[in-house]
Design goal:
Low-confidence stretches of chain A: none
Strand content of chain A: 35-45%
Helix content of chain A: 10-25%
Shape of chain A: globular
Largest sheet of chain A: 4 strands, mixed
Strand order of the largest sheet of chain A: 5-8-7-6
Number of strands of chain A: 10
CATH topology of chain A: 2,3-Dihydroxybiphenyl 1,2-Dioxygenase, domain 1
CATH class of chain A: Alpha Beta
CATH architecture of chain A: Roll
Number of helices of chain A: 3
Mean pLDDT of chain A: 96
Oligomer: homodimer
Order of helices and strands of chain A: EHEEHEEHEEEEE
Number of domains of chain A: 1
Chain lengths: 141, 141
């Protein structure tokens, strides 16, 4: 199996609330292939989709989710300096985004914070001095 | 916030079981930055990490997960034909991978199946005739 990913789909409880978060808080543009209850965002070579969680379970032919709190996974968005972490978190907070963990030094040598989307999906906003990103934000090496 | 992702981290119950799945069933190579209880896989411009779920909750400063069954998200790995879906699923099944949904025509016009990793993280193996992938497997357009 090739070592790559195409789409991450987050199951959400209300597609309008979730799309408001990704479009109006994070400032992302939805992709033209979005239709009905599924909204796609083109990221760096992959897509993020948001879709009603009950429909997502049905598509996977698994029983609906019974999720309270942490969902057992995180998504990370790395930036290029500690200052950029601070600035991004400040701007998100000003838009009403929930900050779960304030920016702080991490044990692994970086600088890290966490925000939550309306469904409790966690995004780590981090700077890792040991990781190289190219201009498009792809991990190099 | 730039429209991109850096890392997906899957919280796992046993790092050895999970790394066996990704290395020996999917056939992926771990990245040199892996250390201790965290294993990284370099994908197409992003990384997938596996990390003990209790440690992941601690890092995000949230209560530990109470997850039974579906975790409310899926990861998709798109290939380039229906035949390739069938072949990949057959080869994974031969290695003992749990197939949650056998390959079949999907309502949205594609061809789709789902497998599960040892922690119940769902991977959709799909062909989407409306999506273009470049040689590296990145979504185009």
């Amino acid at each position: 199996m090739e070592q790559r990913l195409t789409i991450i789909t987050l199951g959400v409880s209300d597609i309008n609330v979730a799309s408001d978060f990704y479009e109006n808080k994070l400032g992302w543009k939805r992709h033209g292939s979005s239709m009905g209850d599924i909204v796609f965002f083109m990221l760096n070579g992959i897509q993020l989709a948001i879709y009603p969680v009950k429909e997502l379970a049905k598509d996977a032919t698994v029983p609906p989710a019974d999720i309270k709190g942490f969902k057992g996974f995180t998504l990370a968005h790395n930036v290029r300096s500690e200052k950029e972490v601070d600035e991004l978190i400040a701007s998100l907070k000003a838009k009403g985004v929930k900050v779960v963990k304030e920016p702080q030094k991490a044990e692994w040598g970086g600088y890290s914070s966490y925000i939550s989307d309306p469904d409790g999906n966690l995004w780590e906003i981090a700077f890792n001095p040991y990781m190289n990103l190219d201009k498009a934000g792809n991990v190099v090496g």
